[in-house]
Design a protein that fits this description.
Elements: E1 17-21, H1 29-48, H2 55-76, E2 79-83, E3 86-91, E4 97-102, E5 106-112, H3 115-120, E6 122-129, E7 135-143, H4 145-159, E8 168-170
Parallel strand pairs: 5-8
Antiparallel strand pairs: 1-2, 2-3, 3-4, 5-6, 6-7
Helix pairs in contact: 1-2
């Protein structure tokens, strides 16, 4: 296994890790900021809160921590990878679910971005496989999806997988 490959990816002798990533924090930034503000307000209120409002910091800090933990950990628990032979999606912190698709099974790739996603430079990459007629794997909220889709498309060309692939953008 390559030294820079995560332990949930098992590389063959001639396989190389080309890209790893996780969902961007940009879509959930307002929730993270709100949680941090609740934490800071709770800490500040411990010194200036009137005696009849002693419970506000006791509520504000844990609620802020819960908000930050919920949104950050949900993103941190998801990892994506592209190797020279496969694509991977890992979810979970305590338990783990790893989905992997061999590149020779990939029929088509595309990425999509709404206007807001284009402005914030993140979007989704959809990977379709032959025979199913459906999207098999989605890399959600990836930073710079056009670049990641380009890496995937170049590798698919290298492996010699089907024509008319990748690079289609929907704004």
């Amino acid at each position: 296994m390559a030294p820079d490959a995560p332990e949930w990816i098992h590389l063959t002798d001639d396989e190389q890790l080309l890209w790893t990533g996780h969902p961007s924090l940009r879509p959930v930034a307002p929730f993270l900021v709100f949680g941090v503000l609740l934490i800071l307000a709770g800490i500040a209120l411990t010194t200036v809160a009137p005696p009849d409002l002693w419970f506000v910091p006791l509520v504000s800090v844990p609620v802020g921590l819960a908000i930050v933990a919920r949104w950050y950990l949900a993103r941190w628990a998801i990892k994506y990878a592209i190797t020279s032979e496969e694509v991977y999606k890992k979810t979970g912190i305590v338990s783990r679910d790893v989905t992997q698709l061999r590149l020779d099974r990939v029929q088509n790739t595309n990425f999509s971005q709404s206007l807001a996603e284009r402005l914030l430079s993140y979007g989704d990459i959809r990977i379709d496989t032959a025979g199913t007629g459906a999207t098999e794997l989605v890399f959600e909220d990836i930073h710079r999806p056009e670049e990641v889709n380009g890496i995937l498309t170049r590798q698919l060309d290298e492996v010699g997988v089907g024509g008319g692939m990748g690079g289609r953008s929907r704004s």
